[in-house]
């Protein structure tokens, strides 16, 4: 019986091959081909999880009609990384909440949007721990959902150019640095986990409070 390695071991194997090929076009082609083949195998082994993310994204598309490209990209990322569920056949409720946060920009643009995002961020973590359904898939989806939503929110709703720059540093820069380092070393590198201060979490609160204050000022302004 052919048993595939776990998601991290498989990713490290792919990255090692890319590094050993010195990142040449042929090495990239082999890397992409092997990654696609593994993704297809893992999706076939988890039809329930594939159906769950497909139904969820269909609901996002029907509810929003705001940016179908965003929804399609979210589905593609989820569908091609089902191996990160490890021994689970379902994505679980917690990850469904996470994917919903990632797709909030396509569904609604209400004044309470940042509050909804914060609520889902708290809820998915608690659900995953309570149900003991923490997986590499869920952890990665959580990080990407935060980066996608809050970067989008900052550039769409935050008037301060300085805070928009800080948003890039809080979410996009770390992800880019981790990815670049992983490719260079030929193995997965874990992002740093601050203990005392989490800049991204602080930025979430700052952006939310500023958005609510602006909404309150607008509501109290006299109409012409």
Automatic annotation (TrEMBL):
Source organism phylogeny: Bacteria, Bacillati, Actinomycetota, Actinomycetes, Mycobacteriales
Homology family: Belongs to the CDP-alcohol phosphatidyltransferase class-I family.
One GO term describing the cellular component: membrane
One BP term from GO: phospholipid biosynthetic process
Coiled-coil annotated residue ranges, if any: none
InterPro entries: CDP-OH_P_trans, CDP-OH_PTrfase_TM_dom, CDP_ALCOHOL_P_TRANSF_CS
Domain of life: Bacteria
PROSITE patterns per the UniProt record, alphabetical: CDP_ALCOHOL_P_TRANSF
Keywords from the named record: Transferase
Designated name of the protein: CDP-alcohol phosphatidyltransferase family protein
MF terms in GO: phosphotransferase activity, for other substituted phosphate groups
């Amino acid at each position: 019986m052919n048993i595939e390695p776990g998601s991290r071991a498989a990713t490290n194997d792919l990255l090692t091959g890319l590094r050993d090929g010195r990142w040449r076009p042929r090495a990239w082609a082999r890397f992409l081909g092997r990654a696609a083949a593994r993704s297809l195998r893992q999706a076939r082994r988890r039809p329930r999880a594939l159906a769950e993310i497909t139904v969820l994204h269909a609901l996002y598309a029907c509810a929003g009609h705001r940016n179908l490209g965003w929804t399609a990209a979210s589905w593609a990322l989820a569908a091609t990384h089902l191996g990160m569920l490890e021994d689970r056949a379902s994505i679980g409720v917690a990850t469904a909440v996470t994917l919903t946060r990632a797709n909030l920009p396509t569904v609604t643009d209400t004044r309470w949007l940042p509050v909804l995002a914060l609520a889902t961020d708290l809820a998915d973590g608690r659900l995953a721990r309570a149900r003991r359904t923490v997986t590499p898939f869920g952890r990665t989806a959580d990080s990407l959902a935060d980066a996608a939503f809050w970067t989008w929110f900052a550039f769409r709703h935050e008037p301060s150019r300085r805070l928009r720059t800080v948003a890039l540093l809080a979410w996009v820069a770390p992800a880019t640095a981790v990815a670049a380092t992983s490719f260079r070393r030929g193995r997965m590198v874990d992002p740093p986990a601050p203990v005392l201060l989490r800049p991204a979490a602080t930025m979430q609160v700052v952006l939310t409070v500023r958005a609510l204050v602006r909404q309150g000022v607008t509501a109290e302004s006299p109409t012409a």
